[in-house]
């Protein structure tokens, strides 16, 4: 098990390195320069600026300089917002994205599981149909439609919830709902189909033959086996929430990281492009790694099969 | 001998898209205290449905218990509430299933799967249940029980898993053990070990056993009596001796003929029973075996045979044995064949 995780850990760094290299190459392949603007400064100023940011050196040197700084967790200084470090920009804005993301992941898992379990236990009855209709709606409506729609109906029309912002607990409801709708629906469908399958398996019959009650059978015997695909999905869910929040933050005027991720590319703000990309990549890779660990904790077969070096 | 289980006129149907499948059509049998009874028959004959109905494990719907009673220790199991029935399952009746590879929960340790029933039914403390589980694992012949208790099903081989299943089924000293094809999914040498184990445990604990199987070879070794089922009905019952030495129903005879014998030469072909069992959505008017029976008479196709008593222990449902049938009925064909 430890060996398996160590291997995964090494691969994490390999993929991160490849990602940094590719992004760096692509970024420099895009025409234009971060210091170009309509109001061009004098040649001397331009030269000084280039020297300050190291843009006068050959690309390979720039690349190795970046790697060296990255190894010290230094993401450089933004070129657009001069003299503000990328580390600071990310840490200031990320707390909003993180809060919204975590609330949304927890909501997705809880609501998704609840809907899925209800649907499975009332298989082919009214509640199942209702839950699945909700799930299809959740999957079908894109967040850029759902967000403004909820704002219009719940905030503008009946003034129940605040329209924008992320300060009070109430502020979280609309963005969370918009951000989680797809994953709630996805998890609900996933849990429903696995739980129905697990409930008809032989070991559930064994549990019934032991005289156990319905609650214990569902929660102790069936759920543990049905939750496995959801854990696998958790890694993707994190990705979903992170990329999804870029749009959500625009809709609900949340001062999160999403706005930098879009604006830095049009600005050719090299350190910010690299910084946000690397940061998102680390988040994604780390969440997959955590999902792997949780999976191994829940499923004993994973522990031994990977322990023996199989699978 | 006191009867422990009496099944009377039991009929079970399943409502499916095409209509009503009459899986069991008026089954009667008795199991006495300390007795091992085999239910044999081919796939779809209603053996497993009978067993699962006794445990009330068939899903309703689509299943439907239409008629009959199941008296177990003086109570009708069919009239119990689900809550009362839970106290019978695993406590007074234990059950072993066909496929040990899928019958254990892959995400729980063997120990917690054994102790679960003990804690629930016998109200044992966690540590007392653990001690009992170790005892049970020893009893079913699993070495190193203290270590094995903490392991998961995937650490066990098929035969070992079936031993664990037996330990689970016997955990609360049930009066009746239902084994639904316990050796079908195992290879032959393991089959023999498992049957041997069940025989030993039955003697030790004086448990009654219902052994469901389609392997007559297994039956002869372990059981006292045999119930032969066909198309949802009991077609013949008798002691081991009666069934193997003096079978009365053409189906029982056919089953025995299709078994290989040790003294048989290699060139001598086994004789299968030709044809297929009837469709139980539309069960035949007469005898269910009629279309496959070499000795069928005209009445067999139109009227269902009644039970004929051959001896105190042997009964058969066949027109050929009916006292009203002409002497030597159907014999001519057999001689010419």
CATH superfamily of the largest domain in chain A: MetI-like
Number of strands of chain A: 0
What is the CATH H-level superfamily of the largest domain in chain B?
P-loop containing nucleotide triphosphate hydrolases
> In this structure, how is the largest beta sheet of chain B organized?
8 strands, mixed
Question: What oligomerization state is this entry in?
Answer: heterodimer
Chain-averaged pLDDT of chain A: 86
For the largest beta sheet of chain B, what order do the strands appear in spatially? 6-7-8-3-9-10-12-11
SS class of chain B: alpha/beta
Q: Beta-strand level of the residues of chain B, as a percent range?
A: 15-25%
Query: How much of the polypeptide of chain A forms β-strand, as a percent range?
Result: under 5%
Helix tally of chain A? 13
Mean pLDDT score of chain B: 86
CATH topology of the largest domain in chain A: MetI-like fold
CATH class of the largest domain in chain A: Mainly Alpha
The largest inter-chain interface, given as chain pair and residues per side, is: A-B, 21 and 30 residues
Walkthrough of the structure:
The complex is a heterodimer of chains A (311) and B (337). Chain A is 76% helix and 0% strand. Chain A has 13 helices and no strands. By secondary structure, chain B is an alpha/beta fold. In chain B, 32% of the residues lie in helices and 23% in strands. Chain B has an 8-stranded mixed sheet, with helices on both faces. The longest helix of chain B has 18 residues. The interface between A and B is medium-sized, with 21 and 30 residues. Chain B: This is ABC transporter ATP-binding protein. Chain B: Belongs to the ABC transporter superfamily.
At a glance:
The complex is a heterodimer of chains A (311) and B (337). By secondary structure, chain A is mostly helical.
């Amino acid at each position: 098990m430890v060996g398996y995780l160590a291997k995964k850990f090494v691969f994490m760094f390999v993929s991160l390195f490849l990602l940094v290299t590719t992004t760096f190459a692509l970024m420099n392949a895009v025409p234009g320069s971060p210091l170009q603007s309509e109001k061009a400064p004098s040649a001397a100023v331009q030269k000084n600026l280039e020297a300050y940011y190291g843009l006068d050196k050959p690309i390979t040197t720039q690349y190795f300089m970046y790697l060296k700084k990255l190894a010290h967790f230094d993401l450089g200084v933004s070129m657009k917002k001069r003299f503000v470090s990328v580390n600071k920009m990310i840490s200031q804005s990320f707390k909003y994205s993180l809060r919204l993301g975590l609330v949304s992941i927890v909501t997705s898992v809880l609501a998704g599981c609840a809907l899925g379990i209800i649907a499975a236990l009332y298989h082919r009855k009214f509640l199942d149909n209702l839950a699945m209709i909700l799930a299809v709606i959740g999957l079908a409506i894109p967040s850029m439609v759902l967000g403004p729609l909820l704002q219009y109906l719940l905030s503008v029309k009946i003034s129940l919830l605040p329209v924008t912002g992320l300060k009070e607990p109430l502020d979280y409801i609309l963005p969370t709902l918009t951000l989680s709708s797809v994953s709630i629906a996805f998890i609900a469908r996933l849990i429903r189909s696995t739980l129905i399958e697990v409930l008809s398996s032989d070991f559930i019959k064994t549990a019934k033959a032991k005289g156990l009650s319905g609650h214990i059978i569902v929660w102790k015997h069936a759920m543990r086996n049905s939750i496995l695909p959801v854990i696998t999905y958790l890694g993707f869910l994190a990705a979903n929430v992170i990329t999804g929040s870029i749009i959500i933050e625009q809709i609900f005027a949340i001062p999160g990281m999403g706005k930098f991720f879009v604006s830095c590319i049009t600005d050719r703000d090299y350190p910010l492009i690299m910084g946000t990309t690397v940061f998102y990549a680390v988040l994604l890779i780390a969440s997959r790694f955590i999902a792997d660990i949780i999976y191994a904790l829940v499923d004993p077969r994973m522990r031994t099969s990977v322990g023996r070096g199989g699978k | 001998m006191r009867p422990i289980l009496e099944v009377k006129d039991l009929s079970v149907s399943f409502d499916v898209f095409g209509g009503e499948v009459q899986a069991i059509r008026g089954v009667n049998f008795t199991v006495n205290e300390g007795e091992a009874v085999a239910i044999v028959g081919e796939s779809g004959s209603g053996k497993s449905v009978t067993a699962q109905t006794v445990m009330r494990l068939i899903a309703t719907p689509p299943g439907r218990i239409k008629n009959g009673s199941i008296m177990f220790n003086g109570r009708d199991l069919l009239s119990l509430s689900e809550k009362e029935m839970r106290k019978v399952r695993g406590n007074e009746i234990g059950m072993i299933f066909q496929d040990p590879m899928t019958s254990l929960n892959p995400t729980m340790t063997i120990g917690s799967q054994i102790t679960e029933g003990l804690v629930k039914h016998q109200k044992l403390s966690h540590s007392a249940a653990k001690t009992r589980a170790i005892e049970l694992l020893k009893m079913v012949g699993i070495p190193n029980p203290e270590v094995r208790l903490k392991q998961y099903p995937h650490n066990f081989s098929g035969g070992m898993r079936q031993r664990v299943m037996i330990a689970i089924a016997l955990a609360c000293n049930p009066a009746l053990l239902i084994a639904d094809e316990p050796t079908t999914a195992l290879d032959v040498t393991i089959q023999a070990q498992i049957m041997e184990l069940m025989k030993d445990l039955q003697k030790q604990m004086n448990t009654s056993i219902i052994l469901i199987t389609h392997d007559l070879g297994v039956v002869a070794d372990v059981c006292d009596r045999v119930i032969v089922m066909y198309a949802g009905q009991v077609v013949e019952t008798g002691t081991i001796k009666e069934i193997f030495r003096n079978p009365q129903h053409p189906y029982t005879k056919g089953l025995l003929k299709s078994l290989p014998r040790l003294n048989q030469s290699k060139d001598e072909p086994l004789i299968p029973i030709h044809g297929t069992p009837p469709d139980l959505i539309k069960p035949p008017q007469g005898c269910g075996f009629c279309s496959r029976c070499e000795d069928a008479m005209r009445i067999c196709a139109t009227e269902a045979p009644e039970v004929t008593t051959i001896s105190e222990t042997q009964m058969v449902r066949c027109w050929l044995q009916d006292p009203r049938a002409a002497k030597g009925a159907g014999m001519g064909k057999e001689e010419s064949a």
